[in-house]
What we know:
Blueprint lengths: L1 H8 L13 H4 L12 E4 L5 H12 L3 E6 L2 H14 L5 E5 L5 H13 L6 E4 L17 H28 L3 E6 L14 H5 L6 H25 L4 E7 L6 H6 L5 H8 L5 H4 L1 H8 L10 E3 L2 E2 L9 H25 L1
Parallel strand pairs: 1-2, 1-4, 2-3, 4-5, 5-6, 6-7
Antiparallel strand pairs: 7-8
Helix pairs in contact: 3-4, 5-6, 6-8, 8-13
Amino acid sequence: MRETLRYLLGLAGPSGFGSSVTAEQVSQDIYSPNPRNLTAIITGATSGIGAETARVLAKRGLRLVIPARDLKRAAEVKAWIQEETPDAEILLMEMDLSSFASIQRFCSVFLSLRLPLNILINNAGKYCKKLQFTKDKFEMTFATNYLGHYLLTENLLERMIETSERTGTEGRIINVSSVIHTWVKRKRFKFSDMLNPEEYNGTVAYAQSKLANILHAKEIARRLRERNAKLTINALHPGIVKTGIIRDHKGLITDSMFFLAARLLKSTPQGAATTCYVALSPQLVGVSGKYFADCNESSCSNLANNEIAAQILWRKSHSLVLNHVLQMKKET
Length: 332
C-alpha cells in the first residue's frame, strides 16, 4: 500500500527521484565526464520509450547506434532527434531481433566498425496475442524479448569489456523487463515449453520473457564479477507506459479495467526515465545485478532472485544459441 501511494503521488525514493520524473530530469548528471566519448546501442528505439531514450541520450551527447528491422521508421526517428540535436551522431543498422541470422549479421558489421561500446540497452519488446513462431522455429515473444537479447549481449560483451578496460569508463548493460514477471510461477517457467508451448497464452509468454530478462541480468552480473570486469548489468521495470504493448494487451482485459489502468499509465518521457537513470546516473557506479523501478532499486520476485534458476537458464540458452549458430555456419 505504501509503495502504491508513493507511486500515485510521485514521491521521491532514496535516489531523489520518483514515478513522475522524466528521462530528461534524471539525466542531468552523467557518470562519465565526457558523454561525447560514450557509444550506446538501443534496441526498440523506433517507437515508444526506446525512441524517447534515444532522444535523451543524443541530447546528452552520446553517439547512438540504432539497430532496426524497419530502417525507414528508424530514419524518421533519427530525423526527429536531429531536429532537436542537429549534431547528434546516430548510426542506423538493420537487425531483426527475432532472427539469429540477422543478429549475427548486425554484430559482425558493428564489430567491424571498431567503435567503442559503453552502453547496451536491451529495450525492444514484443507481445503476441496468438501463437507465432520465428524463422528459427521458436515462439515469437520469448525469442524476440529474451533469446534475441541474449545472443546480442553475448556477441557484444567482449567489446564492452575491452572498451571499459581501454578507457577506464564503466560499461553498462540494461535489460528492460516488467513488473509482470511476478506473475510467473516456477512450474510455468520451463525452457522447452517457452520455446514451443503446447498451450499458448500471450500474457503468460510475455511475462515469462520478462522474467528471463531479469534472470539473464543476474547471471551475467555474477559472471562479470568473477572476471572483475568494469561492466555492470541491471534490469528494470519502466512502469506501465502508453505504448503499442499496452494497446496490444487491451484485448485481454475488460474495457472498464483498461479505463482504470489507463489512469495510472506513465507518459513516454516518464516511462523512459528509469532506463536513462540506470544507463547514466553517477549514483549507480559499480551497481550490478539489481532490479529498478521508478528510478530506485526495487524488489523482484523470489523466482527472479533465484541464482540456480538464473544459471540454468543461462546454460540452456547458451547451448541452444551456440548449436543454432554453429548449424547456420555449416549451412552457409
